[in-house]
Design brief:
This protein has about 400 residues and is of the alpha+beta class. The chain has three helices and 22 strands. It has helices at about 25-55, 125-150, 155-180; strands at about 65-70, 70-75, 80-85, 90-95, 100-105, 110, 115-120, 180-185, 190-195, 200, 220-225, 230-235, 245-250, 260-265, 280-290, 300-305, 310-320, 330-335, 345-355, 355-360, 370, 400. Strand 13 (about 245-250) and strand 14 (about 260-265) form a beta hairpin. Helix 2 (about 125-150) runs antiparallel to helix 3. The longest helix is centred in the N-terminal third of the chain and has 34 residues, at about 25-55. It is elongated.
Length: about 400
């Protein structure tokens, strides 16, 4: 046997126990919370960056612009007005003497001829007044003739004065007798009857009946003509484009078809409503309808389209190019000539059609005018008066900047 001793046997230490696993559900919740927080932080960062960028660029963004060439087109001055239908003639007839109504041979809607009786009052007292006035005038005339033959100058003067007074009294009495019967002085239609048989008319007597158009009339009988007109107004900007004799097309709800007419009067004195918010100045315009239309009625609304004599080959620009809104015969535009930057140019304006207006002076064919708001041509929506129109033969090309 060997005397060498064998090393003692040592047992290997056991491995440490593995850590206890965390619950799976808690780990998932933590991951989701971290993800949400990360998304929120990224969104806030983006919003802050966008806000700072907007502050940096604020005030540097201008309106969209386009350049339209000044070109030759065919134009006809066209203006659209709003108005009210009215008769060309209206008679408000009333009795001038006291009396009892004895006859009313007409009713509302009746057609009457010139000279037709409309209403009468008892004329007994009026006849007596005429008789007495006649006698007094005859006596005064005899006194005057006698004074001329025998009296001094003072007596002649006094007799002449008395005769003048008596003759005037007789004239007034005869006029009152004539007005005991109201008669129409036009061919027309009865529009209102405010008396009936048995009524007492004159001072202190209130008429009764069907009432007059428009309300508030105290006339015994109202007669209107069979011809009609449109009472309209035109603004200062369009006043130079409206002239007497222009042909008109009138559209009213009561008529199934448009009605022809003619401008018969254009006012030269502007009116405007006052108050805290005064309105723009307007001028009165009268359009007389052709013939005797039966489909229009007093007080009805009407739209009038006026078209002047057409002009061909005139220089024109869009209304939207006018910086001041073209409230008169002149205006200002931004115009580019050659390669230079746009400069303000004053122009003289002429005829207009829808969205286009003639340039009489200030621009040449081929010049470019700047239009704000991205105008895309006549009749297209946009600021400065575009939209809702029909430019007819006008064709304009746009050159975006």
């Amino acid at each position: 046997m060997s005397d060498t001793l064998a090393p003692p046997d040592f047992a290997a230490p056991p491995p440490p126990p593995p850590p206890a696993p965390k619950p799976k559900g808690r780990r998932t919740v933590l991951v989701m919370v971290l993800a949400v927080v990360l998304v929120v932080l990224l969104a806030l960062a983006w919003m802050v960056t966008s806000f700072l960028n907007s502050l940096t660029t604020m005030g540097q963004m201008g309106p969209q612009e386009s350049e339209v060439p000044v070109m030759r087109v065919d134009l006809a001055p066209r203006v659209t007005l709003a108005g009210t239908i009215a008769p060309t003639q209206r008679l408000d007839l009333s009795f001038t003497s006291d009396g009892e109504v004895t006859a009313v041979p007409v009713a509302v809607g009746d057609a009457v001829a010139k000279g037709a009786p409309l209403a009468s009052i008892d004329d007994t007292e009026l006849l007596a007044t005429v008789s007495d006035a006649t006698a007094e005038a005859n006596a005064a005339r005899q006194d005057y003739n006698s004074a001329r033959r025998t009296g001094p100058a003072a007596a002649v003067t006094a007799a002449r004065s008395a005769l003048t007074m008596k003759e005037q009294a007789l004239k007034d009495a005869r006029a009152a007798l004539d007005k005991a019967t109201l008669t129409s002085t036009i061919d027309g239609v009865v529009a209102a009857v405010n008396v009936k048989v048995g009524d007492r008319v004159g001072s202190g007597a209130a008429p009764s009946g069907d009432g007059a158009p428009g309300g508030g009339s105290t006339a015994a009988v109202v007669v209107i003509s069979k011809t009609f007109q449109v009472d309209a107004t035109v603004g200062s900007a369009d006043r130079p484009r409206v002239a007497k004799g222009m042909k008109a097309t009138v559209v009213t709800p009561s008529s199934p078809t448009p009605l022809p007419g003619t401008v018969t009067a254009v006012g030269v004195i502007a009116t405007s409503a006052g108050g805290d918010r005064p309105t723009a100045a307007t001028f009165p315009v009268t359009i007389t309808l052709d013939g005797q239309p039966t489909t229009v009625f007093t007080g009805g609304s009407a739209t009038v389209d006026l078209v002047g004599e057409g002009r061909t080959g005139v220089l024109a620009i869009p209304r939207a190019a006018l910086l001041d809104g073209a409230e008169g015969p002149t205006g200002t535009v931004l115009a580019r000539r050659g390669g230079a930057e746009p400069q303000p140019v004053e122009v003289t304006l002429g005829a207009a059609q829808d969205d286009m207006v003639e340039v009489v002076s200030g621009l040449d064919e081929g010049d470019l005018v700047v239009v704000m708001g991205g105008m895309a041509g006549p009749g297209m929506a946009g600021p400065g008066g575009f939209g809702g129109g029909n430019a007819g033969p006008v064709v304009v090309e746009e050159k975006p900047r």
